[in-house]
Amino acid sequence: MLAVPETGVHRLGVEGNDGYRLYLDGHIVIDNWRKQSFGTRLAEVNLPAGSTHDIRLEFFESTGNARVKLVWDAGVVNDWRERIAEAVAAARQSDVVIVVAGIEEGEFRDRATLGLPGHQEDLILEVAATGRPVVVVLIGGSAITMSRWLDRVDAVVEAWYPGEQGGHAVADVLAGDYNPAGRLPITFPVAEGQLPLSYNHKPTGRGDDYVDLTGQPLFPFGHGLSYTTFEYSGLQIEPRVIGPAGSVTVRCTVKNTGSRRGDEVVQLYVRDVLASVARPVMELKRFARVQLEAGQSKEIAFELGPVDLQMLDAGLRWVVEPGTFRVMVGSSSKGIRLRGEFDVR
Length: 345
Hints:
Helix 1 runs parallel beside helix 2. The protein is mainly β and about 350 residues long. It has four helices and 21 strands. The chain has three domains: about 1-70, Galactose-binding domain-like (Jelly Rolls, Sandwich); about 80-180, Glycoside hydrolase family 3 C-terminal domain (Rossmann fold, 3-Layer(aba) Sandwich), CATH 3.40.50.1700; about 230-345, Immunoglobulin-like (Sandwich). It is flat and about 85 Å long.
């Protein structure tokens, strides 16, 4: 039985993954008597306040795992356009706009699409259209696609799930009182069709691009910016030739070329150039976070040993095979600044 609280056009429907028919007072209002993917189907009905109506829902599920839910918009305030208009009006009166956006996720809450849910992207676009500088602060624990709005804003802060003191931490970053140095532990794609997308994939016989999209990430593994800049130089690899049980030391110099103190996360990647089985195009083996005053330089040293060079061969045995190993040092998996090689014999 359906009791109507107020007169007007109501949206009545079914959400589910089954074949179903919805009847209102004996009349079919939704006929979806076929099995297809999960979805929501709605019908508009004009109902007077205080009236009551018989509701009947018939459904079938041919393979089990039935899932149907009656949905009704009674009492739902659909005022998102007005709320965005209020935000736009406030933005026009502001020097800088900070938009805090986020995602819904969790156990049994996987996301099929990676964009910001609801009308958050519409909010960002309309606020950005005011011409005011816009900073987007993202709350969430996984990748978010941003292609629709990224080029329209001035900065993006990935805050993850920052906890009870997160507000203070984000405020310090936005105000410039703290110089951030976080790095992405995952790859952010341009679109879902690129997935799976990882920096340490194995080589393939295909190109990087799709017919309608780049094959490169939106933000690569290890990416992150700060309020200063850094220069890399002086790569040294010693010794250049080692045995299977030997070690090498990789050194480089990092200089803060900006105007304020900051932290850089120096990342060391390795590639086994030619092996008996397919090996990743690059693998992160070491990283170091170093704090430098403006203009200051520091030498960074990493040691690579057999555990960093070994692999499982075709017989599933751990081995260090003879051959050339490429060393790549930089600020991210796509921000390689220095390259060199050494040989195992």
